[in-house]
Amino acid sequence: MTELLQTILVFAVALFFLIKSADYLVKYSEKLGLSLGVPSFIVGITIISAGTSLPELATSIFSIIKGEPGVVAGNVIGSNIANIFLVVGVATVIAKKIEIKRSLIRLDLPLLVGASAILVLTVLDGKFTFIEAIVSLLGFIIYLIYSLTEQKKPLEQTEKGLIKTLKGEKRPPFKWWYILWIIISAAVLYFSANFTIDSVIDLGSLLNLDTSIIAITAVAIGTSLPELIVSLTAARKGKFDIALGNVLGSNIFNGFMIMGVSGLIQELPIQPAVLQIGVPFLIIATIFLAFSGIERKFYNWEGALYLILYFLFIGQLFNFI
Asked: Are 87 and 222 in contact (CB under 8 A)?
């Protein structure tokens, strides 16, 4: 029991530093980009939209390095389910009602549905191959180009949910410590991701569970915390497009970029629990989000339903239900 508690503590601490280091890395990369004259909408689409998915990317790469490639699909699919059912569910319950603009549904929602469909189709055979990784990365490039051409707007948010528009403002001054913070944050991200995966492997051994189960639950929830923080902050401020757009962008990035980069390194096995439980729940989550999104309104009862479905998902994984 003592060894189990120590491992859980290491996992929690490593996950905390993983999330915080990703937060600081995005924050100072954003500041550096803006101070160097990079247009704010490009910073928003690239650095910030990818920022909340950095923990997933780091843990996925380290799981391959540690000889646990099965963690990747569990992490990605689990995070995408958590982003929809948990993050959107909690944000909707807190806000009581979320209304979003037509542009978000017209542009981002079809891309999310497409990314989810490609992800599901590529893992159904129980593996994610090099060719499928190339297809996913091409999908991400198309998404980036589409976003850059269709959504050229001023930067609206940072990781803290604080909004600052730079259109018409003076370029912020360059400061050398931006680079120092980026280097420190990247180093902490590296070591914390390493410890996170080590503790996941240890937990799997101690609890006699497949590491993919821990990845699709504990790791997925932990790495979805940045999305939860951003969406909750935005929902409380009434900035509902940011609250939902954060989830859409993160899920597209997870499905295309994280699976794509990981699949280039090594062919990824899809574990039975991920295939039999994770994939069906991802399909259900995407369908629910699509229908709610088409109406452009998320009601309190829908948020509660999302949370119930997420607990049902967890119960199915651990045979509680």
From this structure: no
Residue 274 is given by DSSP the state: I
**CA gap 117, 132 in Å, rounded:** 13
197's CB contacts (< 8 A; 6+ apart) are 59, 62, 63, 65, 66, 68, 71
The tokens of 20 are what? 């915080």
- The Cβ-side half-sphere exposure at 299, using a 13 Å CA radius, reads 4
Name residues whose C-beta falls within 8 Å of residue 207's C-beta, 6 or more positions apart in sequence.
4, 214
> 2-317 adopts what CATH topology?
A middle domain of Talin 1 (1.20.1420)
What DSSP string runs through 56-83?
HHHHHHHHHHTT-THHHHHHHHHHHHII
Which pLDDT tens digits describe the chain residue by residue (321 residues)? 688 888 889 888 988 888 888 778 777 877 887 777 766 555 655 665 566 678 888 888 888 988 889 889 999 999 999 999 999 999 888 888 887 776 666 777 888 899 999 999 999 999 999 999 999 999 998 888 877 776 554 444 443 443 344 344 466 787 888 888 888 888 888 888 888 888 888 888 888 888 888 888 888 888 787 777 777 877 777 777 777 877 888 899 899 999 999 999 999 999 999 999 999 999 999 999 988 888 778 888 998 999 999 999 999 988 776
Which element (helix H / strand E) includes 314? helix 300-317
Nearest to residue 96, comparing CAs of 292, 287, 235?
235
User: Domain ranges in the chain?
Assistant: 2-317
Contact residues for 237 (Cβ-Cβ < 8 A; gap 6+): 161
